[in-house]
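Checklist before submission:
- one chain only
- standard amino acids only
- sequence pasted in full

Submission:
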Amino acid sequence: MARPVEREPRWRRDEKEDRSEVRAAVQHFTALGLLTFLVVTVPITLWLRHEAEVEALDDAVGITERLAQFAVAPLVTESLLAGDADALAQLDQRLAPWLDDTLLRAKLWDEEGTIVYSDVDELIGQNFGPDQSARAILDPSGSDATIEVHDDAENAFETEHGELVEVYVEAFTDDGQRLMFEGYYDGALVRDEQNRVVLATAPAVVAALAVLQLALLVPAVQLARRLEGHQAVRRRLLQRAVEASDLERRRIARDLHDEVIQDLAGLSYAIEGEELRSEQERRPLLTRARIILQDNVRALRAMTAELYPPDLDELGLPGALSQLVQPLLERGMVVTVDLPEESDLDRERCAMLYRVAREALRNVLKHSGAGSVTLSLSTDPGRVVLRVGDDGAGFDPRGGAADGHLGLRLIRDTLEEAGGTLEVRSAPGEGTEVTAVLVGGAALGPA
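Returned file contents:
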């Protein structure tokens, strides 16, 4: 197996991860701020445009009411209602200044829906039904204003102008007869007023929201950097804990090897020598004692090998994992291994995943009664996944830790402290699958 490729120092990768998390948090906050900005500004803009339109239409109604009251009503006589040419010409002259300026069309309706006056001679005398005059005459306010493209029959001469403001107001003759005066204005006047109000108000609204977002962004960045600091401290503490655990395991393994195992091995040799020299009746007892001692020595040596695992820096995680399956192969189990050729995981992550695999495979060997085992190490985007599965007896995870699975519970705590997860799926008679996931800072070479 190839030696792990250390592409850059671990501390530098960790710093990049922290900066990436802070950057992601700031980007998330900024995106949320922009979304909030749109959610707030779009309704405000629509509301401002609506209010500006209402105000402009109200102004048009006021202008038309004054025009009807002071310019039109005094000239509405019986002669004009009868269609007298001189009376109509006199009203033309009175309205000429407005028609040359802001008023595009003028119409005067009676209650029957007949146009008794218009600046377009072809319309005078035409009847379009009482519904036309009823819009204003029957309305309690006595007026109505809309802005739209008009394409009704009575608007044949206005359609070419596009969007127009149409205003209906009441007008009265000297004898109290109710008429309806209708005026048309260029719709651009209302749209210009809308744009003026929006442009006058929008900068202040946008500036206020921008200042608010900036005021919130500063503490958000501070909180993100504080989180970055906490993560760095947690990572250092975890690293120290892993290092201390490794040192303690090595010390225990060394003490066992240098003292206890050596003493027991020497004792077994002494018993073996005594066995050869002893009387026949004493040999079975000495033989049994020697076998027990030798079994214990082998068990202790295996324990020291577990306490002091292979050099992960030298073998690499894939190589160390490959060594773990040897005892299963010696037991005749079918082992399927899917491991990459190399990895650039830092030593802490390698050690954690190695311990998960070692504990899971130890449980398979001692407790599962499995015939086949799978071991795989792979990457998903931003994470490393280790899986150990078997077709053994299984157990019920809801019933607490099964025999030999307490070690996995302890390893789960360590993984969670490092931001990872450990999941154990099992059921009686259906085997067991152990999945360990570590996020960030990991890459594997080709399988």
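Reviewer check: The chain has ten helices and ten strands.
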